[in-house]
Amino acid sequence: MNDIAIQVSNITMKYRLASEKVDSLKHFIIKKFKKEMKYEDFYALKNVSFSVNKGEMFGIVGMNGAGKSTMLKIIAGVQKPTQGTVERKGMIAPLIELGAGFNGELTGMENIMLNGLLLGYSKKFIKEKLDEIVEFAELGKFIHTPLKNYSSGMKARLGFSIATVVKPEILIVDEVLSVGDFKFKEKSEQKINAMTANGTTVLFVSHSLGQVESICDRVLWLEQGCVKEIGPSKEIISKFKNS
Ligand SMILES: Nc1ncnc2c1ncn2[C@@H]1O[C@H](COP(=O)(O)OP(=O)(O)OP(=O)(O)O)[C@@H](O)[C@H]1O
């Protein structure tokens, strides 16, 4: 797998969903205790295989619930699949649910430290990179304001700036890019392009099909947890739009 950054082989993700309706929590607890709850299997991903080349911009599209986020979480290693394997080459910077590491009571500056540490950067490294992160996020005086007063776009800008301050081999970008305003989107796309030019592999999940088409080389189309098609972005996006 010399030129391959990510090899996904036969990934299946099965959830157990309660198939019985209970009208109260008390009822649920009694049923669960008596082992009377009925469950049915639900497959969020079924036997998914694909590979992503080094330095490639790879998109994943699909309707709501198709399994895109589940796939990203499994690739990022934050979720264990029911079956199958993922081989990755190099360090991965997850952008997904970066907001989950944010604390609303802390200021932007304090959240940079918190998230940097969560992403595994050292304190020294974060301090060195602080100015760069703050500058790229362009939050002005809001950087000293608690995050609970930020808009979703402002949080996304801060998250993107923190995750891309390192030069990861694999970068995961999901909807965060679509909540940024057009200027930030442009700036982020430029940064992503520069990173791929330097060999970083980018995984991009979005409902903004125009954006996927313009920045991705190839696209995976997921439909109800299965691979519908993989191919050049223009071709796949056009088929997906007309489906
Ligand atoms: N923890 C869970 N337990 C049960 N079902 C789950 C769980 N997480 C996700 N699912 C289900 O798996 C399916 C795929 O979800 P996923 O979030 O991967 O979809 P998605 O393609 O990212 O959707 P969207 O475009 O809406 O973000 C959905 O039907 C969802 O309800």
TrEMBL record:
Span of domain ABC transporter: 25-243
Cellular component, GO, one term: membrane
Coiled-coil segments on the chain, per record: none
Keywords: ATP-binding, Nucleotide-binding, Translocase, Transport
SUPFAM superfamilies: P-loop containing nucleoside triphosphate hydrolases
InterPro entries with a match to the protein in the record: AAA+_ATPase (IPR003593), ABC_transporter-like_ATP-bd (IPR003439), ABC_transporter-like_CS (IPR017871), ABC_transpr_TagH-like (IPR015860), Bact_Polysacc_Export_ATP-bd (IPR050683), P-loop_NTPase (IPR027417)
Molecular function GO terms recorded: ABC-type transporter activity; ATP binding; ATP hydrolysis activity
Family: Belongs to the ABC transporter superfamily.
The protein's name: ABC transporter ATP-binding protein
Species of provenance: Paenibacillus lycopersici
Upper classification of the organism: Bacteria, Bacillati, Bacillota, Bacilli, Bacillales
